[in-house]
């Protein structure tokens, strides 16, 4: 199931360091509809049955002071958005999650992207208004391969997240990708059993991209405001069992999918 949520900023700006706040938006919406489910989903490190991508028409960039929290202030680019509209795409294999999210967003109406002294731009707050929620048509993969395009970068890391694995490292990337997706699919929050067949990854038009990201736990542990992740973006062919491919299409590919990475669109 796929949703498109049309959001409106009140400043016509968007911080590029946004993923952790979109996670907070999802948490807040789930709390509005079913607090127990939200606590279950975010109580510990369990696989999240969804991924997301945020897109917006950029008119340009401006460098401004961003207060990440009371301890960290950085200078970074802020996107200037045409008419202030952004599109949040969310995909999931779990209908319960999506129905609760849909219901919660309807109740929420507005979300404080900035709060207290956190995520301020030149000392000003950014707020998001939920303007429209649409259910999108979902494609079905019937063959043992599909050609995908990334809607958000694919992150693949070693077990402890201390080393990125680029798509150009062919054998290692494919091996780790199989291990990661088998582990995610085995989670009770996804489908409780692993890959039915080994995945084969074939880049068609791929490149690497460095993404700035932040999490409260990371800042507290490292004393640094942001982390730099190596992502993989572009077009690729993925072969495997059709059931596995359809599940990957729904939940995303790679690590950190619940943080807004690895969302895919089917080209053919």
Written overview of the protein:
- It is built from 6 helices and 14 strands.
- It has a 5-stranded antiparallel β-sheet. Strands 10, 11, 12, 13 and 14 form a 5-stranded antiparallel β-sheet that branches. Strands 2-5-4-8 form a 4-stranded antiparallel β-sheet, with no helix packed on it.
- With 268 residues, it is an alpha+beta fold.
- The mean pLDDT is 95.
- Helix 1 (19-33) packs across helix 2 and helix 1 (19-33) packs across helix 3.
- It is 26% helix and 37% strand.
- A hairpin with a 2-residue loop joins strand 4 (58-69) and strand 5 (72-81).
- It has helices at 19-33, 35-41, 95-108, 170-185, 216-222, 242-251; strands spanning 2-9, 13-15, 50-55, 58-69, 72-81, 85-92, 110-112, 120-121, 127-136, 145-150, 154-155, 200-213, 227-239, 264-266.
Write the layout of secondary structure elements.
Layout: E1 2-9, E2 13-15, H1 19-33, H2 35-41, E3 50-55, E4 58-69, E5 72-81, E6 85-92, H3 95-108, E7 110-112, E8 120-121, E9 127-136, E10 145-150, E11 154-155, H4 170-185, E12 200-213, H5 216-222, E13 227-239, H6 242-251, E14 264-266
Antiparallel strand pairs: 1-6, 1-9, 2-5, 3-6, 4-5, 4-8, 7-9, 10-13, 10-14, 11-13, 12-13
Helix pairs in contact: 1-2, 1-3
Q: Give the biggest beta sheet.
A: 5 strands, antiparallel
Overall morphology: globular
Strand order of the largest sheet: 3-6-1-9-7
- Give the low-pLDDT segments: none
Query: Percent of residues in beta strands?
Result: 35-45%
CA radius of gyration: 18 Å
Give the end-to-end Cα distance, rounded to a whole number of Å: 18 Å
Number of strands: 14
Alpha-beta content class: alpha+beta
Query: Helix share of residues?
Result: 25-40%
